[in-house]
Amino acid sequence: MMATLEIRDLVVSVEGQIILNGINLCVHSGETHAIMGPNGTGKSTLAQIVMGHPKYRVESGDMLLNGESILAMPVDERSRKGLFLAMQNPIEVPGVTNFDFVRSAVASRLEKGNHLRIGKFILQFEDTAKKLDMGTNLAHRYLNQGFSGGEKKRNEILQMALIKPSIAFLDEIDSGLDVDALKIVGENVTRMKSDHLGLILITHYQRLLDYIVPDFVHIMIKGNIVRSGGKDLIEKIDHEGYDWLKNELGIDELEERKPQVSIGICAQGAPRREGI
Questions:
Q1: Average pLDDT for residues 19-24, to the nearest whole number?
Q2: Residue 123 lies in a domain
């Protein structure tokens, strides 16, 4: 099924401070977008807001998935509608095995009356784990408990491969990965590309984009997308960094200090907005 995520003039605050200031972005399934920028410019914040982090307040604007506003939807409903976030810092969940977690997530997305075929799903899980070099006992390990940083990131990609979302944010999935692990992640994500998946890659560096080639590149500065283009933007950033934007935008600093908000174990509700 084709999908479209549209973000319209989105203004968001946390603890009374505006952190996203009029974001506009449209992502269709079959497209790969990269959002780049220095630290503290709102890239990860945007992904968390789309997924429904409750600490953020939507002041104005809208977010639509397939033409339907998701502002009032709780996190689990957004997920069942097809949204997915591979987190920058995946949490550990003692007592819940990787297999049970992913099985429950996949089963919750089935249409009423359909049932998960466990035998087939076990084979899919094992095959995906093998492609990600995750080891033979992954299914029985507790979710991310005792995992290295690289294992946690690869586990996020395993979940995405099995859940099969229609729109997926990968939030700095390259951080903490060595060259070999980055290659494995990049090749597996590229293998998932299809007309039924829209990808939004959040990263600081070109190295991830050497493996997962984007169709569109956006630069975010101070809570807004200030430049959009193609691979030429990646090359310019790689050679010149982001300082060239200071002159073009007429600003002294590229970053802003923002309150630190943890994504937590599981957000309990949608971003708040007046009248919702």
A1: 95
A2: no
Residue 41 domain boundaries: 4-92+148-249
Counted domains in the chain: 1
Domain with 182 in it: what CATH number?
A: 3.40.50.300
Residue 31 belongs to a domain: yes
How many angstroms from the chain centroid is the CA of residue 75?
14
Q: Are 8 and 68 in contact (CB under 8 A)?
A: no
239 by Cβ neighbours in 10 Å (0-12 / 13-18 / 19+) ranks as exposed
pLDDT, tens only, 133-166: 998 899 999 999 999 988 999 999 999 999 999 9
Residue 132 within any structural domain of the chain: no
**What does the block give as tokens for 187?**
């090749």
pTM: 0.87
DSSP codes, 172-238: STTTT--HHHHHHHHHHHHHH--TT-EEEEE-S-HHHHHHS--SEEEEEETTEEEEEESHHHHHHHH
Helices (H), the chain: 43-51, 75-81, 98-108, 118-131, 149-163, 179-192, 206-211, 231-240, 244-249
Please, which residues have CB within 8 angstroms of residue 165's CB and are 6 or more apart in sequence? 79, 82, 83, 84, 197
Q: How does the average pLDDT of the chain come out, rounded?
A: 89
Q: What is the pLDDT of residue 254?
A: 64
The answer to whether residue 20 sits within a structural domain is yes
pLDDT of residue 251: 73
